[in-house]
Automatic annotation (TrEMBL):
<dbReference type="GO" id="GO:0016757">
    <property type="term" value="F:glycosyltransferase activity"/>
</dbReference>
<protein>
    <submittedName>
        <fullName>Orotate phosphoribosyltransferase</fullName>
    </submittedName>
</protein>
<dbReference type="InterPro" id="IPR011011">
    <property type="entry name" value="Znf_FYVE_PHD"/>
</dbReference>
<keyword id="KW-0328">Glycosyltransferase</keyword>
<keyword id="KW-0808">Transferase</keyword>
Amino acid sequence: MCSLCGRVAFLHTCRLCGALVCSDCYVPELGVCRICAGKLRRRKSKGAF
């Protein structure tokens, strides 16, 4: 069961937090869940200036 949305599906493991998440909640380009992806993107945008 997905840690974020509760869907029963094939699960991926987030490389940052270790959460088991479904394909809808996983960002394959980054190898992380959507929560960690948002954190990474915010860090990247803050560091861009």
